[in-house]
Write a structure and sequence with these properties.
By secondary structure, the chain is an alpha/beta fold. It folds into three domains: 1-31, no CATH class; 39-69; 75-191 and 277-377, Rossmann fold (3-Layer(aba) Sandwich). Helices cover 51% and strands 12% of the residues. The chain has a seven-stranded mixed sheet with strand order 1-3-2-4-5-6-7, with helices on both faces. β2 (90-95), α5 (104-108) and β3 form a beta-alpha-beta unit. It is elongated and about 110 Å long. The protein starts with a helix and ends with a helix. This is Alpha/beta hydrolase. Residues 85-358 form the AB hydrolase-1 domain. The chain crosses the membrane at residues 39-58. InterPro entries: AB_hydrolase_1, AB_hydrolase_fold.
Length: 378
């Protein structure tokens, strides 16, 4: 008989199952306070990893963009000379809409504007919008160039900014505000269609609590991709339900037009632009411009909208038209509503022929007649 057969207890002492059970009973996590210590160690590990990731995000995403934005400032850029040398006393100033910085491309798509006078374009400060600063900048340039008359043109949200700038110029300067041209402008937040309103609100939520969100290009990329998700998702398809070819095209478009383009607004500027709509100051500005003043003639207000309101998928242009009619003196006074055929939401770059035709046939004659009527009353 072998030794193990004579002493069965010895077999139990070397049983592998008992050995493993004993190890489990005595490991760190099961000793007194061991489980708490293990949870604490894991939590510390997660925090350290999070701090490392956050440090990389701050170093490579936020700080370079913050340094760039600190160098930006609002500017007034020349676009074209007046078609008639006798019109050097009038300046047309273009302001771009939500998501844009530089209005030069938009103003360049509307060469007919130089029939009114010299054409300038506003480049916003990427850190935010101060309409008083913009108004003062325009007035200084007008004084320097011996310009007496000013016409403001605002596309989409740029019209909200234009109305506030107009109020500053009309009530606080010695220049004459001839007119304000609003292209598919949401007069207040109710004029913004719900789906577009939710995208802006989503960005505001992120910028409200995420450190560095106003500068983060990664956040901007994420929000812009989410806003275009219907272009690369396949409804009803099994997970992930993504058209990867379309996803690549959309990603390249966002990177080209919204992340690395010099004319793309920063998150902070978009926040300021959207807040200008949320503040709903357009109606108050309209009332201020329409208020009788013995020393000032109220400016003409022009509202350009698609002939088919459904073609504007961002702004309820019918709602904006009703508000304008209520607060801007009505269509029998200083308000003109232009229904431009074939246009969409504030897209003169995409539809230059239609826009220029509408401006030449309707906007210019109205402004000329309005300006002459003002001169005759004087």
């Amino acid at each position: 008989m072998s030794t193990f057969e004579r002493h069965p207890s010895t077999v139990a002492d070397y049983d592998d199952a008992r050995r493993r059970a004993r190890l489990r009973e005595t490991r760190v996590g099961l000793r007194r306070w061991g489980r708490v210590r293990m949870m604490a160690m894991r939590a510390v590990g997660v925090v350290l990893v999070g701090l490392i990731v956050f440090a990389q995000y701050w170093k490579y995403d936020v700080m370079p963009e913050r340094a760039r934005l600190e160098q930006t400032a609002p500017d007034l850029l020349p676009v074209s000379l007046p078609a008639d040398s006798r019109d050097w006393d009038t300046a047309v100033v273009d302001l771009v809409g939500l998501g844009g910085v530089n209005a030069v491309p938009t103003a360049s798509a509307l060469p007919v504007l130089n029939r009114l006078g010299v054409v300038w374009a506003v480049r916003y400060d990427d850190a935010g919008i101060d309409t008083k600063v913009i108004a003062d900048m325009i007035v200084r340039a007008a004084r320097y160039g011996a310009v007496r008359n000013i016409v403001l043109v605002g596309h989409s949200m740029g019209g909200v900014v234009a109305l506030e700038v107009a109020r500053h110029i009309h009530l606080g300067s010695d220049r004459r505000l001839v007119g304000v041209v609003l292209d598919c402008t949401p007069i207040d937040l109710h004029a913004v269609r719900p789906e577009s309103r939710s995208r802006g609100a989503e960005l505001l939520r992120w910028t409200g609590w995420l450190p560095g969100a106003r500068e983060s290009r990664l956040l901007r990329f994420t929000v812009e991709m989410a806003a275009r998700r219907e272009r690369f998702t396949v409804p009803g398809a099994p997970l992930p339900g993504i058209d990867f070819g379309a996803l690549r095209e959309v990603a390249e478009e966002v990177l080209r037009d919204k992340i690395f383009s010099e004319n793309a607004a920063s998150n902070g500027l978009i926040e300021s632009q959207f807040l200008a709509i949320v503040a709903g100051g357009g109606t108050a500005d309209l009332r201020a411009l329409a208020r009788p003043n013995p020393d000032r003639e109220s400016p003409a207000i022009v509202f350009i909208r698609p002939g088919d309101a459904a073609r504007d998928d961002v702004v309820d242009v019918e709602y904006s038209r009703r508000v304008l009619a209520e607060h801007a003196g009505g269509v029998d006074g200083n308000l003109l509503v232009v229904r431009a055929n074939g246009t969409g939401h504030a897209n003169p770059i995409q539809r230059p022929r239609e826009y220029n035709a509408a401006i030449e046939s309707q906007v210019l004659p109205f402004l000329f007649r309005y300006q002459q009527a003002v001169r005759d009353r004087r």
